[in-house]
Design a protein that fits this description.
Radius of gyration: 19 Å
Number of helices: 6
Largest sheet: 3 strands, antiparallel
Strand content: 5-15%
Order of helices and strands: HHEHHEEHH
Strand order of the largest sheet: 1-3-2
Number of strands: 3
CATH class: Mainly Alpha
CATH superfamily: Winged helix-like DNA-binding domain superfamily/Winged helix DNA-binding domain
Distance between the termini: 28 Å
Helix content: 55-70%
Shape: globular
CATH architecture: Orthogonal Bundle
Length: about 150
């Protein structure tokens, strides 16, 4: 479904492309993240756990930046993960405003258990594209994402 906006060819092309990009992203993301329901995780909670698994402990502000979330949103996400004992927070002694977040043993077990099936699902979803198409999509997404 494209735009119904009656503008210039350039406007219509840009809007149609944007609509297709957003719809494809939402569709793929929905299919990929279905497995999170079984673990009672949101997409952002999964993102926090995955980042901590692969990068180690991170400051809360760095997690927010990495996941493109606001400070307030990431605070709520981490609050909920902390209630489930999946992450813990530690305040820096020198600067108490700095809060480092790390996985607990329970959090490490959970993300280590579900991440392999996540990878398999992503690989399956992307397999509709050839390797060269995946590389081209990667290049185009990077180019679009870095525009300021």
């Amino acid at each position: 479904m494209g735009t119904r906006y009656q503008g210039t060819k350039e406007e219509i092309r840009a809007l149609d492309t944007y609509i297709k990009l957003v719809r494809a992203t939402d569709s793929v993301s929905s299919r990929i993240h279905r497995h999170l329901d079984a673990s009672n995780l949101t997409t952002t909670q999964f993102g926090v756990l995955e980042a901590l698994l692969h990068l180690g402990p991170l400051y809360q502000r760095d997690l927010a930046s990495k996941l493109l979330k606001s400070g307030g949103n990431i605070t709520l996400v981490i609050d909920n993960l902390e209630k489930r004992e999946l992450v813990k927070r530690d305040r820096e002694i020198e600067d108490r405003r700095c809060i480092k977040v790390s996985l607990t043993e329970k959090g490490h077990e959970l993300i280590s258990q579900i991440f392999p099936s996540h990878v398999a699902t992503v690989v399956n979803e992307m397999s509709i594209l050839t390797p060269s198409e995946q590389e081209e999509l990667d290049r185009l997404c990077r180019r679009l994402g870095k525009q300021e």
